[in-house]
Amino acid sequence: MKTIQMLLLCLIAPVPLIPARAQSSLPLGAAGNTIYGANAKVGKYADIRGFRMYYEVYGAGKPLLLIHGNGGSMKDFQNQIPYFAKNYRVIAVDSRAQGKSTDPSDSLTYEMMADDLNALLNKLRVDSCYVIGWSDGGIDGLLLAMRHPEKVKKLAITGANLWPDTTAVEPSLFQWIVSMNDSLARVPQRPDVKTQKKLLNLMIEHPHISTTDLKQVRCPTLVIGGDNDVILPKHTMVIAESIPQAYLWILPNSGHSTLIRYKDLFNQVVGDFFKSPYRKAKGMAQLD
C-alpha cells in the first residue's frame, strides 16, 4: 500500500514524483535528480524467475535489503540509503513490475515478490540479511521471513497489512482504490495501464496472511506505523502481537510515510534495533 497519491500520479505521469519534503537531503546527479535508481556506476540487472530485476548496491558490511511499496522504487529509500551505507552493504531493489524491473507476466502476488527477493539474494550469495520493508515492501518482508526464514536476520516493517479489507485499511481509501481499479478497466489497455491495474489488483485482492501464519516469523521484528496511517494502527498492533519476537513503534502525527516524515529518527531507531539483542521484558523489568 504505497503512498496512494503517488500511485495516482503514476497513472497519468510517466515519471515517478519525489515528495518535496524529501528532496533537500538527496544526493544529486548532473540532472538534479537523485542518483538512486539511476546510478549507471552501480546499477545492475539480475535475470531471475522469468524477469529482469534491477538493483543497486551501496556501502560495505553486513547486507541490508530495502523493499519499497506498491508503485514505488528504490528511490523511496533516498533518505535511508546514505545513512545505512555507512555501516551496511545496502541492497536496494526495484520489485517486479515496478521501477526499472520489467515483468511480462499477467499476474502478481506478494508471494511471487518474496520469492524474487530470495532468488536475488541467492544470486548475490547472501545467506542472511537485515531487511527494511515499507508498505507492500513490509508485506514482502514478512513473507520472505516466513517462506525463507534463513534469509532474514532482523526485520523492520512500516505500514504493512495482513489482509485486504477495511478492518486493515482506512475504509474510504480502500473504496477509492477499488473505484480506481474499476475506472482503469474502462480505458484502453496500454502496457502501462495493464501494469498499474496489476498493482491495484494486488492491493485489492492480496495479501492473505493470518495471525497464525505470523508465528512462522522467527526473527526479531520491529513493527512500525503512523497514528494517522492508512493502515489502521489497531491492525499494526495485531501484527506486532502475533510475531513471537516483535517490538511495536507507533509514530505520532504521522501517516503512511513514517520513514520520510521522521527520517532521522526512523534511521536511528531502526539502526539501534539492528545492533541490539532482542529483549522481552517480564515481571519487574516491565517497570523500566
Chain-wise SSE layout:
Layout: H1 4-12, H2 20-23, E1 44-48, E2 51-58, E3 62-67, H3 81-84, E4 88-93, H4 110-123, E5 129-134, H5 136-147, E6 152-158, H6 171-184, H7 191-205, E7 221-226, H8 233-242, E8 246-251, H9 258-261, H10 263-275
Parallel strand pairs: 3-4, 3-5, 5-6, 6-7, 7-8
Antiparallel strand pairs: 1-2, 2-4
Helix pairs in contact: 4-5, 6-7
The helix/strand series, from N terminus to C terminus, equals HHEEEHEHEHEHHEHEHH
Query: Counting H and I runs of at least 4 residues, what is the number of helices?
Result: 10
Low-confidence stretches: 2-32
Helix content: 25-40%
Strand order of the largest sheet: 1-2-4-3-5-6-7-8
Gap from first CA to last CA: 35 Å
**Biggest beta-sheet profile:** 8 strands, mixed
Backbone structural class = alpha/beta
State Rg: 18 Å
Beta content? 15-25%
**What form results from the Cα inertia axes?**
globular
What is the strand tally? 8
Overall residue-averaged pLDDT value: 89
